Amino acid sequence: MQPKQDFIQTIKDNEGIIYKITRVYAKDAEDQKDLYQEIVYQLWKSFDTFKGRSKISTWMYRVALNTSIAHLNREKKKGHTVSADFELLDRFNASLGKVQEPQLGATGSQWQEQIDILYAHIKELNLIEKGLILLFLEGKSYEEIATITGFTVTNVGTRLTRIKQKLKTNIQK
Amino acid sequence: MELEEMKTLWQEMSVKVEKQQIITDQLIMEMTQQKYRNKFSKLMMYEVSGAVICYIMAVFMLLNIQKLDTWYLLICGIFSVTFLAILPFFSLRSLNKIKRLEIANYSYKEALVRFAKSKKRVLLLQRMGLYLSPLFFLVVLPVMHKMFNGKDMFQSDVSAFPWVFVGIFFVFIILFSRWGYGCYKSMTNSAENVLKELDE
For position A1, what pLDDT does the model report? Predict the structure, then answer.
């Protein structure tokens, strides 16, 4: 398979991961689209050098999370700017919109509301905590979280216990 | 909502999101093109334009430095040229460093440390610029006055109007600097907190 097709397939198989990460780190829907584009660009840039050195998902989480931190750093320095390609943004917006459509019957909007609350609680956490809880919710083991984040397994455990406690307190407020 | 409920909800959402397959081949390839990444380039463009203006001014001053015929005007001239040459250089260098970071090579923890440190560096630079700007403004005025009008502002009779304007502008710059100091302080603190927490 050609690298281009291989890359397209990899993104298609894992687009949910990028969607969830961008939703946690972006300020709003517009920012989410920009971050999504930036992550895809960074993944493409490192796709050749990646060549199976680690699991696809490990590489993907690592690049996506690091790009999100970089994105936040740049956002604060430059303020708000508008992306140049409106056609692309419109199409992207339509694509992202489909994910958010509540086609879930009578309980769909309630479910959507709960999802929004869940994201709101995660967004309240700091950068370190956000990354760790996201991987935890993704069902990653402590070992996998340690590989992606660079923390030791013990440290991941300790931090997650603290984050869970913090989340619990925030939720009960 | 309990934590276990959160995890279940997240997993339910993951199943729904992963089923979507909304992104097209064309859209993916468009996103990989450099032309869509205009945001950071835009910031770089502002910085480069600013630097070019600073360097043109510095070259102009250097070419006319012989017009500064007193020791104090010469000191003002040297300070202005140094300010115009050094600050944009460091600013562009720090932005370039951030741009060259190979995101895929670092773990989340390493990336947090690198970005927090680079943020602290950029903030320090911006803070220096903020403090030095009022001084630069005061120093560059007599230099420009001498270069364009051939008059020494400290000795010749200058009408009151420009001084009123200078005074108002100077007060504005000081107020702006004080406001900026508060903003930079809180941003630097947040970068420091990240580094401190990572050390724990």
Answer: 53
Amino acid B85: pLDDT: 92
Around A154, how many Cα atoms within 13 Å sit in the side-chain half-sphere? 1
Distances B48 to A72, B44, B137 between C-alpha atoms, Å: 22, 6, 21
Look-up of token digits 């943020």: B119
A149 vs B108, B119, B122: nearest CB: B108
- Least Cα separation, residue B71 to chain A (angstroms): 40
A70-96 residue pLDDT tens: 887 665 444 444 443 445 555 555 555
- Report how many Cβ contacts below 8 Å link chain A to chain B: 167
Cβ contacts of residue A157 below 8 Å, gap of 6+? A142
The Cα–Cα gap between B21 and A45 comes to 22
Task: Say whether pTM exceeds 0.80.
Answer: no
* ipTM rounded to 2 decimals: 0.75
| Per-residue pLDDT reduced to its tens digit, B118-171 | 878 877 887 787 778 888 888 888 899 889 888 887 777 666 666 777 788 878
> Which residue in the set B30, B35, B104 is minimally distant from A46, CB to CB?
B104
Q: What is the CA radius of gyration of chain A?
A: 17
Mutate to test the interface with A, among B5, B7, B8, B10 (most CBs of A within 10 A): B10
Q: For residues B68 and B74, is the Cβ–Cβ distance under 8 A? A: yes
Average model confidence (pLDDT) across chain A: 79
Distance, CA of A153 to CA of B122 (rounded, Å): 33
Selected residues 146-175 of chain B with any CB under 8 Å from a CB in chain A: none
Give just the sign of the alpha carbon dihedral B24, B27, B28, B29: positive
Which residue is associated with the tokens 């993907």? A60
Determine the distance from the C-alpha atom of residue A102 to the mean position of all C-alpha atoms in its chain, rounded to a whole number: 21
